[in-house]
Amino acid sequence: MVEILSINPFSILAETVSPLAMQYFIIAMILLIAVGTIIQMIHHKNLTYFFNNAKKAKLSATKELGVGEKASIIAKTTVVDIGTTSELGFGKRRLAHVLGMYGTILFWLSSAVLVFCYTGVDKSSSETWSMLWHVGAILTCVGGYWFWFFLRVDVSSEAHPWYRIIKADLFVLALLACSTFGLLWSYTQFNSQMTLSYLFLTLFVASNLILFGGVYWSKFAHMFYKPGAAIQKNLAEADGSRDNLPPPADAPEQFGLGIKREEPKHY
Fold first, then answer.
1. 207 falls within a domain
2. What would the pLDDT profile of 23-32 be if each residue is shown by its tens digit?
3. Quick check: 188 and 200 in contact, CB under 8 A?
4. What is the DSSP string of 86-121?
């Protein structure tokens, strides 16, 4: 099993598919992300909302932040709020998101590195990047399937069946399909099960096309919006504008005895 993890699946594929075609495919996926995100921003006017909100916040600010303060807030937000998904609090949902997030980053980054740097004639192999590719896919599957079957709010709190699918699920399902079919393709290719290997390779390619080609309809672009929203929120709290919200009341938090009856289950 360890030997499989150290094998670059794209290097074996290069015996039948041109490495240049693989590189063009990755470039095409990046372009699909850019085009889909830009179209969504124009249609949903997300960027317009952020700019208008920032202007309103600046007018109601009680303190002017210096460049150093802004840089410090942005850095802290990036490392703590975004890097550890701290808005989810401590618990299973946060752990599942962190596993899926870092697994996906590893999977995508190592895919690009393996294809562009370690696939083709006269190119060396890299056990490290090959292992990162497999580990990234495994982490994505662990976090993603954990979330899908047990932690989704409509499953855990609203008693909907796990197989109920809506448009908002396109991103997570396509992402899980990519990781799952990628691992199955690598495994069957390594064991010379060529029929199954080509089947899983086809499904791997198709799931990538759905994932990156469906940016406009899925939650993919939220990965770009959420960091921006988190940074804007923390800057607004620091300069006193608070996104035009009232300050917290100077009084004890009293929610009544009902809040102790059960643990809250929400986003």
1. yes
2. 999 999 999 9
3. yes
4. GGG-SSHHHHHHHHHHHHHHHHHHHHHHHHHHS-ST
Mean pLDDT of 72-76: 89
Give the DSSP letter of residue 85. T
Two structure tokens written together for 60:
């109601």
Burial of 232 (0-12, 13-18, 19+ CB in 10 A): middle
Q: Is residue 186 part of a domain?
A: yes
Q: Which two tokens stand for residue 256?
A: 């009544």
Q: With respect to residue 82, please indicate whether it lies within any of the assigned structural domains.
A: yes
Average pLDDT over residues 211-224: 82
Q: Please count the structural domains in the chain.
A: 1
Residues whose CB is less than 8 angstroms from the CB of residue 185 and which lie 6 or more positions away in sequence, other chains included = 9, 197, 200, 201, 203, 204
Is residue 99 in a domain? yes
Nearest to 77 by CA among 223, 242, 235: 235
pLDDT at 267: 46
Please say whether the beta carbons of 11 and 119 come within 8 A: yes
Residue-range definition of the domain harbouring residue 115: 2-56+64-238
